[in-house]
Amino acid sequence: MILNEYCSSAQCSVIGGAITYTIVNEHAEGLPLIVVHGGPGTPHNYLASLASFLPERPVIFYDQLDCGLSDKTNNPQWWHIERFVDEIEKLSQHLGLQQFNLYAHSAGTMYAFDYALACPDKITNLVLASPVLSINAYLAYMLELLATFPENIRTVLRMAMEQNETDTLELMEATAYFAEHHMCRLPVWPDEMFESSVNTNIQLRNHMWGCNDFLITGNLKEYERLSCLSEFKVRTLITVGQHDFISPTSCKKYTELMDNAQLAIIQDASHNPHIEQPRLYADVLCSWLAGTQKYSF
C-alpha cells in the first residue's frame, strides 16, 4: 500500500451522491492522470501502486459511487454505464482539469473509452489496461481458457454457468484456480488486492456484470465498441498480461483498428501486471506518458 504517500482526499458531487477521490503527488508538475478502477464495484485500492511509478505527475484515484469510500446509495437506478462515464467528467470539472491523462483497468476501460469517445479533446493520453471493448470477444476467449482448465475445474465452472450457482465450495475452489492463473499469479497476493476484493460491492457487480465471469448477465452484456475504433484518434496505450483472461489477441486487434495506438503485452503476468511485474510495468507506463506538458494544481 502507498497510503502514506497520499496527499489529499476530498469528495466530488456526482449524479446520485458524492464520490471520494485522493490525489497522490499533488504538487508534481506533470499532466495529471485520472485512474478508473474496474469491477464493476471493486474499489481502487488494488491500483494504488501506480502512483509510485509516476512521481512526476499528480495521480488521482477515486472510488465510483457505491464503491469503497464513496457514498453508498444501494440504488440500482444509478448502476448504468452512462452515469459512471459522467463521473469522470464531473471529477475533471471539479478539479478544473481542461486536459489530463486517463488510465482505466478491466471493466473500467468501458467507462473510460466511452468518455474518451465523448470528450476526445480533453484526453492527452489514454491507457486501457486489460480492456473490455467487446463483450462477445471477451466471452469467446473466456470459453477458450475454460477449455484448457483441468477437467474437474472445467466441469464445476460449466455447471455454475448452467445453474447460476454462486456459493458452493467446489465453485469457490474452481474460482480460486482461475484467479491464481489468470487474475494474479503471485504466490501471495498483496494486501491491496485482498482489500479491493473483499470490499467489492457484489450487488452492483451482479447488476452490471453478473455473478459469473464466464457468463455476462448484467446491463453491460451488450457492450460492443469495435465499430468505433477506426475513427478513434486519441493517443492510446493498451496493456495486457501474457496470461490475462483478457485476450492478448483481441488487444492486438483493437490496437490495429485504432489510428494512434500501441500494445504492450506484459510477460509473466496476468490481469494485474502492475502488481505482478511492477518494474516492467512502470517502465512501460512512464515511457508512454513521458513528454506531456507540465501542469500544476
Query: Mean of the pLDDT scores?
Result: 93
- SSE pattern, N- to C-terminal: EEEHEHEHEHHHHHEHEHH
CATH class: Alpha Beta
Give the amount of beta strand, in percent: 15-25%
Query: What structural category characterises the helix and strand content?
Result: alpha/beta
Q: What general form does the structure show?
A: globular
Give me the secondary-structure topology:
Blueprint: E1 6-14, E2 17-24, E3 33-36, H1 50-53, E4 59-62, H2 81-94, E5 100-105, H3 108-118, E6 123-129, H4 135-148, H5 151-163, H6 169-182, H7 191-198, H8 202-208, E7 236-241, H9 248-257, E8 261-266, H10 273-276, H11 278-289
Parallel strand pairs: 3-4, 3-5, 5-6, 6-7, 7-8
Antiparallel strand pairs: 1-2, 2-4
Molecular structure report:
It contains eleven helices and eight strands. By secondary structure, it is α/β, with parallel strands linked by helices. The protein has one domain (3-289): Alpha/Beta hydrolase fold, catalytic domain (Rossmann fold, 3-Layer(aba) Sandwich). Strands 1-2-4-3-5-6-7-8 form an eight-stranded mixed beta sheet, with helices on both faces. Helix 5 (151-163) packs across helix 6 (169-182).
Short summary of the structure?
With 297 residues, the protein is of the alpha/beta class.
